[in-house]
Amino acid sequence: MEWLNTLLQGVLLGGLYAMFAVGLSLMFGIMRLVNIAHGDFIVLASYLALMVVNHLGFSPLASLLIVVPLMFCFGYLLQRLLLNRTLGTDILPPLLVTFGLSIIVQNVLLEFFSADSQKLSQGDLEVASVGIGNLSVGVMPLIVFGSALLIIGGLQLLFYKTSLGRAFRATSDDQHTARLMGVNNAHIFGLAMALAMAVVSIAGVFLAIRTSFDPTVGPARLLYGFEAVIIGGLGSLWGTLAGGVILGVAQTLGAKIDPGWQILAGHLVFLLILVVRPRGLFPRSVD
Amino acid sequence: MNALNNPAPVYRVQRTTTSSTIGLALLGLCVLVLFSAPLWADRASLRLVVEFAYYLALAQMWNLLAGYAGMVSVGQQAFVGLGGYLLFMLATRFGIPPLFAVLLSGVLVALLAIPTALIVFRLRGAYFAIGTWVVAEVFRLGLAQMSSLGGGSGQSLPAAIVRQIGNDRDGRETLIYFTALAIAIAAVAVVFFLLRSRQGLALASIRDSEPASGSLGVDTFRTKLMVYVLAAGWTGVVGALIFLQKLRISPDAAFNLQDWTAVVIFIVIIGGIGTLEGPLIGTLIYFVLRGCLAQYGAVYMIILGVVAVVMMLKAPQGVWGLISERLGWQVFPMQRRLSIQPRP
Lengths: 287, 344
Hints:
The complex is a heterodimer. Chain A is mainly alpha-helical.
């Protein structure tokens, strides 16, 4: 029963990792951009939420009302003003520019918020739990997992049922032909980044409620998201959920054996899957 | 006009230019001055030169990987850290003399890089970059779990081993000074001769188009593996030397992304990626910037990051690229120029 509980915790944790991964997956899927600063943007969203909570007196979950639109706009501007200039056949410029951004964001956060670790408190909701049979499950992890399902389901609908989604898929398939058909690539890329940042901000707020954070924890979140994407297989949104769940379970099982092994176990499972199935479990696109 | 009274012209491939002769002579002079430095310079300056030397070697190796072989790694801190830890292990457990242990650490790191390469080579482009980072994290977290090596808090080099390097502090520092200088100069030389060889041509062709070079008979996998392992081993030697100088190691210091990879990437980008001169100029610029800005703490990394991002967008060829475009200079004779003269 104890192991079943651990397993369940891992699955729910996987929801959070899937949220880290969805942003990465969107950016890579639509504009072939791998954003190394992804984890630092997650932490940036956590700090934005912290400011909203501290200065406006919002609860962390309510802070999403401000943080999500803010990050959406930030993402659009970032893509239009900076990242669109780096896209092309050479992989070096986007990689190194986002790497530079990662270091810049970390140090800006360090300068403004110091290295002290922070946490958002959602009051009673954090400790509330519901009983399922003999298991007791936290309400907050359930909300996080449910949100991940909603986000992925919503994006799936957006991609396959709307004209914007059609433009996304067209640009993803062939940028040049999409342009000939009247798609404004620069704008589409901006919207894709804005969407990714909106997901990032939700992930950032949930992360901040779940654990304490400081300016240096971003890169680890990038790695978890990246591992979930690769485990799930490039280009598949539901795959990233599976990847996140596998990673979450590996980490909680590792932590169960020895607390020091939590993160290491996740990385090792990732490397193992890379050796056995280099294209992930549910590959859709070819890079 | 026929072939008989107008014989074929003489083709000659020219590599040295006036600027490269002057440049190499100046560089040689600098090296001579640096080798005499322990006679006249103070301790702080010598330490600065040691640091300059290991950043130059790290930058040269990252440049070889990313600028010449197209393998952008953000996980080179894995090899700096492994080099440092292997040095501590070899010196404290097996009693191997520290300087010899530095070299041996490099060899062992190179061996460890082979299985690493077999895993990360499954990823391409940007995913390769993040994959190398995961590997570095695995090494960091793994070593933090080994309590015999000090666990998460690390360990210091025992005094008995420190005395093996040299009896007094001056003797030790002088020895480390010459070793660092030799490692940096050898790093530049190895990359130089590698790139001028057949392998160098193969590398340039892989960077420009992997499928095309493969179809022309370049063994792309073997060439990339060789470069990856060479860069890893050399980075490991530098890592061992860094922690021999610091006398203390911990997982967070040894596998530090900002110190051993971010700074190195910025150096190469600012100096000029894909040139041998770039890392040299970049390291110089880095030390000047650091000298001016280090008192501002985090602001200095922000400025360095902004400079690198702007550089990547506005002048991806770097400072040296700008200079050589305008003036046609080269210090290391790398280019091949075809000169055609009519037969006398």
